[in-house]
Design brief:
heterodimer, A: 375 residues, alpha/beta, four-stranded mixed β-sheet, 66% helix, elongated, B: 389 residues, 14 helices, 5 strands
């Protein structure tokens, strides 16, 4: 046990030797939190819509206004882009989409008002940029609704909408995006930074060439690993307190229920990530490899596989199995529950177990690899 | 006169040529050293090439903003034909999956609270009576708002499904007056993966290029052999080039591999010019490498280099439109993304591969990348060389 503490102290001393590293380790997660927390918004708003209105009547202008009123679209004034008379409007809209000026183009035919007044059907063309699939689907879904709203408010529809859905959004009635994003950012930040620091620390002796001394000393593989792990766990806990407390203050998050799972689960999650870093470090020979490996795998996995932005349920079957081995996925659930849903212990205790399992697995792998080389 | 002039002339040429050969051999020696070291470190090569490949494949499959299979629980207090048809309309195109039927609203509520269900529907008992009388009947939906994005899309789908159901079941006596005809351009099959695969490619290139070059740049400082580097007769320019060029070549290999995988696995089309794609990717790599180089000069050891590397790269990835839409960002951030080279690079590759456009449309982004590349390369090589003298 003393050997673990001795190793831990040694690691902390080496960490502390560079004040710049310490500052970075604390500030960077926090700054990342700020940037992500404020910048990421998923709801489609202000999608640029280019309109070619060949009717130019009050009715067509009203129809266009409905799109602006929905707050989902901003109308692009096409006049500033082309002064020539345009004969083929579809090609013209296509060129607007090519240049990325708008994501969707709308063409209102010249007989718009006339046909409506005569109770005949009029076709309005919409060209949607299909490369941006996120927006494309949203646009596609909103067009019928906005169209219907226009018809009803102008008394043109017989109002056959007999079933009226009243929709209430629970836990987050304002659909505040920060409530969704910020717990996610906590997860990312707490998953990434400790793992990186641990990986580099693990490779340090190998890179410096001092590893022989470690092997020759009386420290056993598990004490070596645990010592390093403990040191960085302490650093990670510090990072967590700093980031989470400030994050809660800045974004106005509070505990939504009984946060006990958060308090138990967080150190376990940190430990698991540190063990991941240590495991990677055990297998790599140089800090450059360790950095590359942890950097690319952990970063992208945690961002993409944990349900940070896109739901985990979307992942198609065989690959969805992989998600179950990503500790960040479980922790993400815990975080979201802690800060938004608040179902407390009963709803989330089972999420801690997979994290513990992964941590144990990583420890065993790291241990066996390190043990092989002990003299 | 003439002879002295000629002598001077030839000696000048001799000097230049000597400089050239010296430049050549010293540079060559350094480059060979770097390349050999790189090749010998098979583990590093593997790590450089393999994870990006796997990740590209994986993430292309999993990233999908499509909202599907939302578990919804239903309390049907009417239990008539129309209510059952309404419920089955909900699960028609798999957006919702009717997970279970419950008997009371409070039971339903508890399951949503525990996160076991993501949405709930309660159909009131007066459903058949009101419909028969021609009145509008209200049905209650609630949606788990923890994931604001899904909640928004789910609400939108609820509206759309209900709207279409109404049109079908209760046709109006006049035909719908406005018929929106919707066409999808560039991607008629609405394949999600294309959009994201290219975004992931951009992300992977960003991470890989700056990580590997920053570690390379700081190698001597980190291993304490800086004095030896300072003492080599090679000029700082040669040292710099010898470090950058092997990485640059390797990373271009990553680009080509990524393109091949995208085509093979995801059928990503190449509607524009491949040459342009490769050239502009090379340009972007120069930006990434310069960034890494610069980070290496600022940091003191490996830990700092990767911490700052992530500090720079994570916002670059998120604020690039690769996986999160730029249009949805607050105005302030939307303007900041203009300073993000990855954003421009992604516009370029999506434009070339998916839309088939070329320089005539993409020139603003290309210009932006050129400016970034020149500025970053200048600053980073200046700092790198000055730390060697």
């Amino acid at each position: 046990m003393e050997r673990i503490l001795a190793q831990c102290k040694k690691e902390l001393l080496q960490f502390w030797r560079f004040p710049l590293t310490v500052a970075l380790a604390f500030l960077l997660p926090f700054i990342t939190l700020l940037i992500y927390g404020f910048a990421i918004r998923l709801e489609a708003k202000d999608i640029p819509l280019a309109v070619q209105d060949f009717d130019r009547s009050p009715l067509s202008r009203d129809y266009i206004d409905r799109f602006t009123a929905s707050k989902q679209f901003t109308i692009i004034n096409l006049r500033s882009f082309n002064h020539k008379t345009v004969f083929n409007s579809t090609e013209y809209i296509q060129s607007i989409l090519d240049r990325g000026i708008a994501k969707v183009g709308m063409i209102i035919p010249p007989d718009f008002t006339r046909k409506i007044k005569e109770n005949k059907t009029v076709d309005v063309q919409f060209l949607i940029d299909g490369t941006d699939v996120v927006n494309a689907k949203v646009i596609q879904n909103s067009i019928p609704a906005i169209t219907n709203f226009f018809l009803v408010s102008n008394g043109l529809s017989s109002g056959n909408q007999k079933i009226n859905p009243e929709i209430r959004v629970w836990f987050n009635p304002g659909r505040l995006e920060s409530l969704f994003i910020v717990p996610g950012v906590f997860t990312i930040v707490l998953a990434l930074f400790p793992a990186i620091l641990a990986a580099i620390a693990m490779v340090r002796e190998k890179e410096d060439g001092n590893i022989i001394q470690v092997y020759a000393s009386s420290i056993s593989a598990q004490e070596y690993i645990l010592g390093k792990g403990l040191a960085y766990l302490l650093v990670a806990l510090g990072e967590t307190i700093f980031t989470v407390v400030l994050g809660m203050l800045i974004f106005g998050l509070g505990f939504a229920g009984n946060p006990i799972v958060f308090f138990i689960g967080t150190p376990i999650f940190l430990a698991t990530n540190i063990l991941y870093g240590l495991m990677v470090g055990a297998f790599t020979d140089s800090q450059r490899s360790a950095i590359q490996l942890v950097g690319t795998t952990q970063a992208l996995t945690v961002i993409l596989f944990s349900g940070f932005i896109y739901p985990v349920s979307n992942i198609p079957f065989p690959i969805s199995l992989l998600v179950y081995v990503v500790p960040a996925m479980y922790y993400m659930e815990i975080m979201r529950d802690t800060f938004v849903r608040g179902s407390g212990f009963s709803g989330t205790w089972h999420l801690v177990l997979p994290i513990v399992l992964m941590g144990l697995l990583e420890f065993v792998v790291a241990w066996r690899k390190t043990r092989k080389m002990q003299l | 006169m003439k002879i002295t002039f000629l002598k001077k002339f030839f000696s000048k040429i001799g000097q230049v040529m000597k400089f050239r050969t010296l430049f050549g051999s010293r540079f060559r020696a350094l480059a060979v050293k770097e390349i050999t070291e790189l090749l010998r470190n098979k583990q590093f090569l593997f790590i450089l090439l393999f994870p990006p490949t796997i990740q590209l494949c994986l993430y292309g499959f999993i990233l999908s903003p499509e909202v599907k299979s939302i578990k919804i629980g239903v309390v049907d207090n009417a239990k008539v034909l129309e209510s059952r048809e309404f419920i089955s309309a909900l699960s028609e195109n798999k957006v919702f999956i009717v997970d279970r039927y419950l008997n009371s609203q409070s039971e339903l509520g508890k399951l949503v609270e525990n996160g076991k269900l993501s949405a709930g529907l309660v159909i009131p008992p007066e459903f058949p009576r009101d419909l028969r009388r021609g009145k509008t009947v209200n049905v209650q939906f609630f949606v788990d708002g923890v994931n604001a994005y899904i909640a928004g899309i789910a609400s939108g789908y609820i509206g759309l499904i209900t709207y279409n159901f109404n049109l079908r079941e209760f046709p109006a006596n006049v035909s719908p007056v406005i018929n929106p005809q919707i066409y999808f351009v560039y991607n008629p099959g609405m394949v999600y993966s294309w959009f994201y695969v290219l975004g992931v490619m951009g992300m992977i290139l960003t991470l890989t290029s700056s990580l590997s070059s920053s570690v390379e740049s700081i190698r001597e400082k980190a291993s304490g052999t800086l004095e030896q580097l300072l003492m080599t007769p090679a000029s700082s320019l040669e040292i710099l080039l010898a470090k950058i060029i092997p990485i640059f070549i390797l990373l271009n290999g990553v680009v080509i591999t990524a393109l091949i995988i995208s085509q093979l696995v995801f059928d990503v089309p190449v509607r524009g010019s491949i040459l342009l794609f490769l050239l502009l990717s090379g340009l972007y790599l120069i930006i990434g490498i310069s960034t890494g180089l610069l980070l290496g000069t600022i940091a003191q050891n490996n830990m700092q280099v990767i911490l700052t590397g992530f500090f720079i790269n994570l916002p670059i990835i998120i604020l690039s439109g690769a996986i999160t839409p730029i249009e949805s960002m607050p105005v302030f951030f939307r303007y900041i993304t203009l300073l993000n080279p990855l954003r421009h690079y992604i516009v370029i590759i999506r434009g070339i591969l998916l839309k088939g456009v070329g320089l005539e449309i993409l020139w603003p982004e290309v210009l932006a990348l050129l400016i970034f590349a020149i500025v970053l390369l200048a600053i980073s090589s200046y700092k790198f060389r000055s730390q060697l003298s």
